[in-house]
Amino acid sequence: MDCYAIFAFGYDLGDGGLTKLKEYDSSFSDLPDVAWYDPDGNCDAFIMQAESRLLTAAGVTHSMWGDLEELMKEHVGVWFKPYGYGESKYLLLAHILETDLDDDPRPVDLAELTKRVVQDGLDTKLANALEVLGVTPEQERPAWLHCAWSA
């Protein structure tokens, strides 16, 4: 099992049914209630359809598809990242620092990361993605998040 530490800028979308989205309705289904989603009952399908919607909105055709995370980074400026262990939990990110168990500690320049948010328009990229998806995180604004991921 590989374990990673993640320090990333974005939103925590929650576990299982993306429970940290305001559109999540536990009385209706296990996933957010948005018009574009074709439910088949699992969080990963929601993420895949969200990626497709964002890439299509960015002008990426299915014939161009390859590594979805790389396409999302290049054309949309944000991507989804699982975190935790076992049950699906997801972040919507615009920047990430990752380390695994074999990496040496490294300094993090918080001032530089804060500048990067403004210089690279990370807030705007995340806001645009949320608008295309028609979802609203419970988290009030994007933030630097620290968590673990195990594969």
Short description:
This protein is of the alpha+beta class. The chain contains 4 helices and 4 strands.
Describe the structure.
- The protein is α+β, with helices and mostly antiparallel strands and 151 residues long.
- The protein has one domain.
- The chain is built from 4 helices and 4 strands; from the N terminus they run βααββααβ.
- The protein has helices at residues 43-57, 68-76, 110-119, 122-133, and strands at residues 3-15, 79-82, 89-100, 143-150.
- It has a 4-stranded antiparallel β-sheet.
- The protein is globular and about 45 Å long.
- The model has no long low-confidence stretch (mean pLDDT 85).
Number of helical segments? 4
**Main beta sheet:** 4 strands, antiparallel
What distance separates the N and C termini? 6 Å
Structural class: alpha+beta
Tally of distinct domains? 1
Number of strands: 4
Low-confidence stretches: none
> Average pLDDT value?
85
Strand order of the largest sheet: 2-3-1-4
Coarse morphology:
globular
* Helical fraction: 25-40%
Radius of gyration: 15 Å
Order of helices and strands: EHHEEHHE
**Strand share of the residues?**
15-25%
Which structural traits does this protein have?
151 residues; alpha+beta; 4-stranded antiparallel sheet; 4 helices; 4 strands
